[in-house]
Every structure is written in structure tokens, then in C-alpha cells.
Design brief:
Elements: H1 2-30, H2 34-45, E1 49-55, H3 60-75, E2 84-90, H4 95-107, E3 112-116, H5 118-125, E4 133-138, E5 157-161, H6 166-176, E6 182-188, H7 192-207, E7 211-217, H8 223-231, E8 236-239, H9 243-246, H10 249-259, E9 263-265, H11 268-272, E10 277-281, H12 283-298, E11 310-311, E12 315-320, H13 321-327, E13 339-340
Parallel strand pairs: 1-2, 1-3, 3-4, 4-5, 5-11, 6-7, 6-8, 8-9, 12-13
Antiparallel strand pairs: 10-12
């Protein structure tokens, strides 16, 4: 009886062993073995991401920020047409276009959005709390109601700020135009970033004991008339990083070249297009910095809610030598190294 029992146990063990072999073979055929599971995870991590870029208007600074962003992705292995697909849309300064573009990105379920300029960020952020949004060329995220705070954004929006060294820019104005008694400021009244900078400029001008005047516009059609108005009231003009004026600098220059009025600008692209000088942000570098933030989000290493708003790490001088000659400004010896090629007519 004991011998029979031992024999039965051996037979049962053999049957179970065969069953496990058959099951393992079946698993291999169905692709569910351990190594295949690991392969599936690897495939998910190398998915092709879709990135929407919504840009408010076409001008040098914003274009440079976009280029820097794309180059940062490319330099770190995220190449458009390969493992990412970039959908770039420019609203051409039209609010209704911003809304349409935002709807497009949401319908297409993009994985991440780059919003270039305050209005662009406000448009897309007003329509989704799910898609990660990175902003750039935005001066104050808190003032624009895009985040809870610059240190702890708290939602789906973060990015880089283009807050300028406004006080230092006014100091540059005084250095280049030492006889100036009244400083005029031009900006767009409905651009949050411009309002913030104009306020800082007013404080800086008045702290230097100079007179302050301002003229505002609401759209590009008012730029020429506003410039004509202000040149009659001041000795020099300051224009912050204002999107309407940045895209309309040839109109500004058309007036100031006749009145011989120096224009200190918020960024170098504006100087290239007819301004006199700036100590401002390098927008390509700012966009590149934003691209590095995007990589952290795509890799799952961070979320916008816990990523503080980042600031530019350096500022660059830029002086338009042709404009200086045209309006009769002598460039100090220590600034001559910063002369750039730019338009004077």
C-alpha cells in the first residue's frame, strides 16, 4: 500500500511538472512573461509626445524664445518629427485666434503646451487645468493670475519670467542722455507685463529727480500717434518688453528718427529694429531655460504645481550704432563693445 502511494505521488508530481511547462510555454506565446512586461514599460517611456506652442504675436524676442525652447529639447534628445511632434501656432496678436488655438490643443490632447507671452498663457490656462503649461516671455505670473505664487505655482502653469532690470535700464538712459530732464514711457494699457514695468520705470525715474510722462495704446494702430504725442513732451523715451511696441518698432523709429529722441528698450530685438539701447534679457537663453523645465515634466521628474517660476540668469547690453549716429548720441567708451548691427531707417 505504501509502495502504491509513493508511486501515485511520483506520478502526480510528474503531471504537475508538465503542467507548469505547458503553462510557461503558453505564457511565452501570449507575450506575458516577465521580460515582455519590462519591454512594454520601456515602450511606454519612449512614446512620441505632442507639444503645442501658442505664440501671441510675431516679433524677434518671442521668436527667439521659441527657438531656444526647441533647441533645448533637441539638445536633450527630444527631436521634432522623431520622438516629439510640435504644433506651432501664432495668434498674430488676435485674442480670438488665441482662443481657437487653445481649443485646438485641448481637442488634440497635447501632452504639454508652451505659451509665449502673457496673453497666450492666459488663453490656454483659462481652458484647461489638466495639460501642463510652460510660459515664457511673461513678466509677472502672479499679476497675470496664472499661478498662486511665483514660488509655489500650485496648478498646471509654471515657466520663466522676463522681468527686466528696469531700474538699471533707466540708469542706462541717463548715462546715454545725461541732459534728459523728462522721461516718457510708452506701453500697452492692457498688457499686464507692460503695466508692471511702467510702474517700476515711474519709480526709477522719479527717484532720480526726473519728470515722468506716459502715453499708452490699446492696439498697434495707435502706436504712431502715441509716439508723435510723447516726443513733444520728453527728452528720452523708455519702452518696456511690450508686445505691441516690440512688433511696431519701425513705426516708433519713423517718428523718433525725425525728432532725434533716444529710445531705451526692454530687449535687444527692439533695439535692432530702431531703438537706441537696452540692458535686457537674452530671449533665446530664456526659451532654452524653459525647454529644460519642459524636459523635467516630460520625464515625469516634476510637475508645474511644484516648479517655481525661474528668472533669467544674465542680462546683455545692446546698442544700435546706426541709430546713435542718426540722432547724434555719443556712445561712452565703456559701452562701445556692445554696439550691434541694427536698422536705422
Amino acid at each position: 500500500m505504501k509502495m502504491k502511494m509513493k508511486k501515485l505521488i511520483r506520478v502526480a508530481a510528474a503531471i504537475l511538472s508538465c503542467a507548469f511547462v505547458i503553462m510557461a510555454a503558453g505564457c511565452a506565446k501570449n507575450g506575458t512573461k516577465e521580460s515582455d512586461v519590462a519591454s512594454t514599460v520601456s515602450s511606454d517611456s519612449s512614446k512620441k509626445y505632442s507639444i503645442g506652442i501658442i505664440q501671441y504675436v510675431d516679433h524677434v524676442a518671442l521668436n527667439s524664445a521659441r527657438e531656444g525652447f526647441i533647441d533645448a529639447l533637441k539638445d536633450n534628445g527630444y527631436v521634432d518629427g522623431e520622438n516629439i511632434a510640435i504644433d506651432y501656432q501664432n495668434a498674430q496678436g488676435d485674442q480670438s485666434n488665441l482662443s481657437t488655438i487653445s481649443d485646438r490643443f485641448i481637442a488634440n490632447k497635447v501632452d504639454l503646451v508652451l505659451a509665449i507671452a502673457t496673453s497666450a498663457a492666459q488663453a490656454i490656462a483659462g481652458k484647461t487645468t489638466e495639460i501642463p503649461i510652460l510660459g515664457t516671455a511673461i513678466t509677472d505670473y502672479e499679476a497675470a493670475k496664472l499661478v498662486n505664487s511665483n514660488e509655489e505655482p500650485g496648478g498646471n502653469v509654471t515657466g520663466t519670467t522676463d522681468m527686466n532690470p528696469v531700474r538699471e535700464q533707466i540708469d542706462l538712459l541717463v548715462k546715454l542722455v545725461p541732459d534728459a530732464k523728462t522721461v516718457g514711457v510708452l506701453y500697452t494699457s492692457n498688457e499686464d507685463n507692460s503695466i508692471v514695468q511702467a510702474k517700476l520705470a515711474k519709480e526709477a525715474v522719479e527717484n532720480l529727480g526726473l519728470n515722468y510722462v506716459e502715453v499708452t495704446v490699446s492696439n498697434s494702430n495707435e502706436v504712431q500717434q502715441a509716439t508723435q504725442d510723447i516726443v513733444e513732451k520728453c527728452d528720452a523715451i523708455y519702452i518696456p518688453t511690450d508686445n505691441i511696441f516690440a512688433s511696431s518698432m519701425p513705426l516708433v523709429h519713423g517718428v523718433t528718427s525725425v525728432s532725434k529722441t533716444p529710445v531705451i528698450c526692454g530687449e535687444s530685438g527692439m533695439v535692432s529694429n530702431g531703438g537706441l539701447a537696452t540692458l535686457g534679457i537674452n530671449y533665446y537663453d530664456l526659451g532654452y531655460q524653459t525647454g529644460l523645465m519642459a524636459i523635467k515634466i516630460l520625464k515625469g521628474e516634476a510637475k508645474p504645481a511644484t516648479m517655481p517660476i525661474e528668472s533669467a540668469t544674465k542680462f546683455d547690453y545692446a546698442i544700435n550704432g546706426a541709430v546713435a549716429d542718426e540722432i547724434g548720441i555719443e556712445i561712452p567708451e565703456d559701452l562701445k563693445q556692445y554696439v550691434i548691427e541694427g536698422n536705422a531707417n
